[in-house]
Specification:
There is one protein chain. By secondary structure, the protein is an alpha+beta fold. The protein has 2 domains: 3-151, Homing endonucleases (Endonuclease I-creI), CATH 3.10.28; 173-264, no CATH class. 59% of the residues lie in helices and 8% in strands. The chain is built from 10 helices and 4 strands; from the N terminus they run H-H-H-H-E-E-H-E-E-H-H-H-H-H. The chain has a 4-stranded antiparallel β-sheet. Helix 1 packs antiparallel against helix 7 and helix 9 (228-235) packs across helix 10. The chain is rod-shaped, with a radius of gyration of 35 Å.
Length: 268
């Protein structure tokens, strides 16, 4: 993760920690989610825990997070609990344009937390890692929905803006690469065509070619950089006629000079 991405994640956590629930029950729920010892390094999260305790609503924060009565809780209380749990045990990675949400909790809590997150529309998986329960989601849309639910709207907009910008840069690079490849092919083809015209002119076969072929050859010599469409527009003939004429010139230039057959053949 780059410094810019780390700063964005820090801003997201600061934004969540600054939310001041208006309902007493939400403050209790968020205190439950934070737990007794939040692992977050941000000072804003520590200040949130202190603020809840000072308000007298954080006295239950020392109890285990799973004592929160999730089935009986109102939706807004569930949201507050999830916000606190994310601040205490959650992390977010946006490295490489991919969003990865992760909670590191006690082993016994992992399946319950996964079920609670699934209940609010965040499909997750969980596993054990070095003796800890790890609950993760790599679904960018679902993670965005979760962050919006817990109140991280400002930071989320920045995350989405960066993702859109990255996608646009990727599309622009794809288009530029395709255009570059097309240009290289066009330059290579024009080089072959000019060589063929020079060969046929040198051995005297070019003047005997049909009028359209000679017309296209002259136009190609005058404008080596022109595309087939540009040659066709300049000569006021179909693009397919220009292409056939140039293909004929290349084909004839590869034949032996003593092979008279194709020299005077009509243009297909």
């Amino acid at each position: 993760m780059t410094r810019s991405e780390r700063d964005l994640v820090t801003a997201l956590r600061d934004e969540l920690a600054a939310i001041d629930p208006s309902r007493a029950c939400d403050r209790v729920a968020e205190a439950h989610g934070l737990g007794p010892e939040p692992t977050a390094r941000e000072a804003s999260v520590a200040r949130l825990a202190i603020r809840l305790r000072r308000l007298g609503e954080g006295s239950q924060a020392g109890r285990r997070a799973e004592t929160f009565d999730w089935p009986a809780a109102a939706d807004h209380c569930r949201t507050a609990w999830l916000r606190g749990r994310f601040l205490a045990r959650g992390s977010l990675s946006i490295a490489g344009g991919r969003t990865h949400l992760e909670f590191t909790v006690d082993p016994a809590e992992a399946p319950e937390l996964a079920a609670r997150l699934a209940a609010v529309g965040l499909p997750v998986s969980w596993r054990m890692r070095r003796g800890r329960g790890v609950v993760t989601s790599k679904n960018g849309e679902a993670v965005g929905t979760f962050l919006r639910r817990v109140g991280a709207t400002g930071a989320l907009l920045e995350v989405e803006a960066r993702q859109v910008s990255r996608a646009l840069r990727g599309e622009l690079n794809r288009v530029l690469n395709a255009e570059s490849a097309n240009l290289q092919r066009a330059v290579s083809a024009a080089g072959r065509q000019l060589d063929a015209i020079a060969t046929l002119d040198a051995d005297g076969r070019l003047p005997s070619q049909p009028y359209v072929v000679r017309l296209v050859a002259a136009a190609r010599r005058e404008t080596p950089e022109a595309s087939l469409a540009e040659l066709a527009e300049r000569l006021e003939i179909h693009r397919s006629a220009v292409q056939r004429a140039l293909e004929r010139l290349e084909r004839l230039a590869t034949l032996e000079t003593d092979d008279p057959g194709p020299r005077h053949a009509a243009l297909a």
